[in-house]
Amino acid sequence: MKQYRVGVVGATGMVGQRFVSLLEQHPWFQLAALAASPRSAGKTYREAVGARWAMAEPMPEQAAEMVVLDASDVDSVVQKVDFIFCAVDMKKDEIRALEERYARAECPVVSNNSAHRGTPDVPMVIPEINDAHLDVIASQRARLGTRRGFIAVKSNCSLQSYVPALHPLMADFGVSKALVCTYQAISGAGKTFDTWPEMIDNVIPYIGGEEEKSEQEPLKIWGRVENGSIVPAVSPSITAQCLRVACSDGHMAAVFVKFNQKPTMEQIREKWSSYSGAPQALELPSAPKQFLHYFEEADRPQTKLDRNLENGMAVSIGRLRPDTQYDYKFVCLSHNTLRGAAGGGVLLAELLAANGYFD
Fold first, then answer.
1. Is the per-residue pLDDT at 1 higher than 90?
2. Cα-Cα-Cα-Cα dihedral sign, residues 223, 348, 8, 52
3. Which of 157, 242, 247, 332 is catalytic?
4. What is 4-157+341-355's CATH superfamily?
5. Which of 251, 293, 332, 335 is catalytic?
6. Is 251 a catalytic residue?
7. In the predicted structure, residue 211 carries a pLDDT above the cut 90
8. What is the pLDDT of residue 230?
9. Domain with CATH 3.40.50.720 in the chain
10. Were both Cys, which of 94, 139, 194, 333 would link to 316 (CB 3.0–4.6 Å)?
11. Reduced to 3 states, what is the DSSP secondary structure of residue 180?
12. Is 167 a catalytic site residue?
């Protein structure tokens, strides 16, 4: 596989730090540029991050000595890289404009941000589920007037547990509606217990904007490409309630699901255990060998035990049982800054690279 030079824009934040860590030993991607806000520009990455390094592993030495660029100086970043990961912390309209500037400068953008998730010709991809949506990039390039440049985004972190769990059941059994309650770790807010001590021994039953994303984004993922746009699906009906919990990493979801044709529990477990997608077929470097793991134990999945399955890139499912109002209920779990954020972004970039979108 060809080697690609990669930039991380928004490198000093928690997701940016995770990108830097994941790229240290990546077989395809070489970290070539780090960019952040003007207050970090001109400093070494070590100086810019300072005491805010939030990863368990030490800061990679190569990255530590790199001089941080100004993220708004698009030309300076683009000349060093073949594509960028974007994880900036800005207002949505500012992010939307910045990402389009990079794309129009013929630099592909793999975004962790929500600003372009609703843009009809921007694919929002969970690589095992809707890789066919990459086809819309041709239409996006036509709109932007670019040859190489485009934007692709990953979905909201909270979706990465329950959407993969529901997806293998849809074709044969038809999911008509789902009720989802998510229990989301503080790293999803870019925090640690040191920086957010109010979360210790606490649960906050509100995350601004999260419930709307959790209800609407799956419909785009399950939509179809038509006339140069992604047309969202009209079903299933999803209602969500999202809570912030005192956990460092891992987003859990309690899911209640109703089917058009009710399967047996054995059929559901078989669908989960046998499901795989494009990353597994292509043997991408970050792809889990088994995407979905089901646990029979009554007390699983658990964040401490199961969030790091297959380097944090697998989804854990357990407690499948009948429900009196819905057909079944279960619990699922994913690592939010690995599967859900930076790791999912790296996997999406691998999928794009394997299909020639960076060439």
1. no
2. positive
3. 157
4. NAD(P)-binding Rossmann-like Domain (3.40.50.720)
5. 251
6. yes
7. yes
8. 98
9. 4-157+341-355
10. 333
11. strand
12. no
